[in-house]
Amino acid sequence: MDIDSAPVPPPQEYSDNPTGYQSESSMNFDYLHGLNEGASAAARASSSATSLGGHGGSSDSPRHFGAVGGGGIDASTSSMQSYGYVDDSKALDRFVSVLDQLDARVEKFRKDAMGLQEKKDFLLMSIDLIKSHDMLHSMMESEREEIFCYIQRVNSRLSTVDLMVHTVRDRSQEDALSQINELIDIMITMGDPVLARQRCQQYLNACCSAAEAAESYEYGVDVDAGPIDKKFEGALLGCTLDDQKNIKKRLQALMGYLNKQTVRN
Asked: In this structure, which topology does domain 167-265 adopt according to CATH?
């Protein structure tokens, strides 16, 4: 039985494309240009108002606004512009527009970080699958030690990348996620791909939510997902919705690998 060179492929949407990051670097502050242009326009308006106000008198003297007011220009408006004030409504619109763009980029950044975290999880899972592969038991001790040393080097290098996207969880949700991770780790290290596949299928069946079942029933589809691991289901229901989605994706990728292993055996 051969070891799959890529046991757990990461999701396709998270491809390695450094040019994508490079292309964004030139636009990092583009959304601030509108704000700067607005400030420049306000400064020009202020300068122009000051020049108009200074006609026939010193611009430093407050008395020149009376002459301007007499010439048909509102004195209070000219006074505000001469001191750098701008229209509040326009300033508010500019800031809201810039913050909307910034908020969208923050959300994209968070999704990208979550994608990288998921990618790291898949790599860790691949390392665990190799460590528990049954072919290692048939190797000579020296060969097995060499493989484990190599695994340790790869794992150490991966551990130098520290990613964290904070998901708000209470204590019970933290405990539930920890229990889920422990159950998946035990399944991965079972050493028997057939039993591991059966266990993984039971875990996936537990991921079938009540909403999905109700929707399937509405369209006349049979929702019999098969046997469910009750312990896993109980822990899963205690996790956040984001964690439940990520767990399901992990199990789907793992099932794809285990299906290949079962066929090869």
From this structure: Methane Monooxygenase Hydroxylase; Chain G, domain 1 (1.20.58)
